[in-house]
Amino acid sequence: MKELFQHAAVTDGITVRVAVNFLPEQSRIEAGKWFWVYHIRIENDADEALKLLSRRWKITDGNGDVSIVEGEGVVGEQPTIPPGGSHDYVSGCPLSTSHGSMEGYYVFRRGNGTELRALIPFFPLAAPATAG
Questions:
Q1: d(Cα 57, Cα 115) in Å, to the nearest integer?
Q2: 3-state class of 17 per DSSP?
Q3: Which residues contact 12 (CB under 8 A, 6 or more apart)?
């Protein structure tokens, strides 16, 4: 089954695609815990290999409270993506509200040592109305 990427952003030859799904089986709505899983595909259409150094996420819950999450790499990896190549990973986001949003950026190192910031598209986190 091919995943449907719902959101995309392009920065200097890097395309970041996102597919997000609410996971009721991982949520505990009665305890005020909602959980989403997101699949990211980073495509390198630049002329050189790029090493993913770090990420910065802005996560906003349904009350407007913002959390900033920064760190090295993605899910414990700092992949080098060759020209024409891509890197996929899956991660998750818990919230204490039934909706919110995520957005951010990755920092890559080019072959010449300079850094490039690639946008992660804004995407909503929304539980189905029947989920509470």
A1: 18
A2: strand
A3: 46, 116, 118
Ordered strands of the 14-22 beta sheet: 7-11, 14-22, 34-44, 86-95
Residue type at 123 in one-letter notation: F
Q: Are 14 and 116 in contact (CB under 8 A)?
A: yes
Q: What is the pTM of this model?
A: 0.93
Provide the token pair at 121: 């598209």
Nearest CA to 104 out of 34, 51, 40 is that of: 40
Which tens digit of pLDDT belongs to each residue from 59-115?
A: 999 999 999 999 999 999 999 999 999 999 999 999 999 999 999 999 999 999 999
Contact criterion met (CB below 8 Å) for 62 and 32: no
Domains located in the chain, CATH noted: 7-131 (2.60.40.1470)
Paired with 28 in beta bridges are: 33
